[in-house]
Design goal:
This protein is α+β, with helices and mostly antiparallel strands. It is 16% helix and 43% strand. The chain has helices spanning 3-25, 185-198, 233-237, 256-261, and strands at 28-33, 36-44, 47-51, 61-64, 70-79, 84-88, 109-116, 119-131, 134-135, 141-142, 145-149, 160-162, 168-174, 180-184, 204-205, 208-215, 220-228, 244-248, 251-252, 271-278, 281-288, 290-291.
């Protein structure tokens, strides 16, 4: 068998991967905001999805299009809890990405297509984790836990994650310790649609500034009320500065971040009961969760 024959299967795989990346790159753009550079993709005509964490907090935004043109973009909305931001550009002639939700196996090949000013970029790796729905550290509801073992550059964050058939199954972002996570297609479709309509994703609001504390001789965890928004749900329910919340609907407050993470979009309008300590006395207070005011 000749060396050429031995290399033929590898060449076939290489050509197939290059074709998959080239196909996806028609929908992938580069993003420049202040001193930050990242990637994104055309979600719908005139609308670009990118990674919120990679987007500067303020300043002008420019989108580098396939082919080399650069156009200004306007921020439609952003949701830090799911790491999704939506931009609008005055170009409706670009190819939107076709998002899908294929069944992924751990160990399967995966690629990420990003973009820089001079053209598309690509990285190849494997699916290192494929699990069910989870909640981010900021309280966002993510439809699937997908992680990639892949050497991703910072400028490719916000690019499309592709399976071995070329299906775009989500957006690649960085998690803790630079792990590469994928915000899955279902989450993108749900959150981006809310951002397009409302400019933000509703979040629950208590109107309370809270700090973790321990209570009693047993050192049970709780959350002390450090401040009260006079117009917020907490004030309307009668909570005071110095109150210590020890349970939420009968469940102990084991970690403050767990309480805050429970204030997702579905919590708005929900009535909850707090068990609390006030000046040594035990009380119960019912509260209707409000909607966090726009920043």
């Amino acid at each position: 068998m000749t060396d050429h024959a031995v290399l033929a299967p590898l060449r076939g795989v290489s050509q197939a991967l290059a074709a998959l990346v080239a196909g996806a790159a028609r929908s992938v753009v580069s993003i420049q905001s202040h001193r930050s550079r990242s990637s994104g993709f055309i979600w719908r005509p005139g609308l670009v999805v990118t990674a919120d964490e990679a987007l500067a907090e303020e300043g002008e935004i420019a989108v580098g299009l396939p082919g080399g043109d650069s156009v200004p973009a306007r921020l439609v909305g952003r949701d830090p809890t799911t790491d999704i931001a939506l931009l609008r550009i005055d170009r409706a002639d670009l190819s939107p990405a076709v998002l899908s939700s294929p069944k992924l196996a751990v160990g399967a090949l995966a690629a990420v297509t990003g973009a820089e000013e001079e053209g598309p970029t690509a990285a190849l790796g494997i699916v290192s984790r494929a699990g069910g729905p989870w909640r981010s550290m900021r309280g966002g509801e993510i439809d699937a836990r997908l992680e990639l073992a892949i050497p991703l550059s910072r400028r490719a964050e916000g690019g499309l994650a592709l399976d071995d058939a070329g299906h775009a199954f989500g957006m690649a972002v960085f998690g803790p310790r630079r792990r590469v996570l994928v915000i899955p297609s279902a989450t993108i479709e749900r959150v981006a649609a809310k951002l397009e309509t409302h400019g933000r994703v509703p979040r629950g609001y208590l109107g309370l500034g809270l700090q973790p504390v321990t209570v009693g001789s047993g050192k049970e965890p709780g959350a002390m009320v450090m401040s009260v928004d006079p117009e917020g749900p907490g004030a309307q329910a009668g909570l005071h500065q110095g109150d210590v919340i020890v349970a939420w609907d009968g469940e102990p407050i084991r970690h403050l971040h767990s309480l805050l993470r429970a204030l997702g979009p579905d919590s708005v309008g929900r009535k909850v009961t707090f068990d609390l300590r006030r000046a040594g006395d035990s009380r119960q207070i019912s509260l209707t969760i409000g909607e966090r005011p726009a920043a």
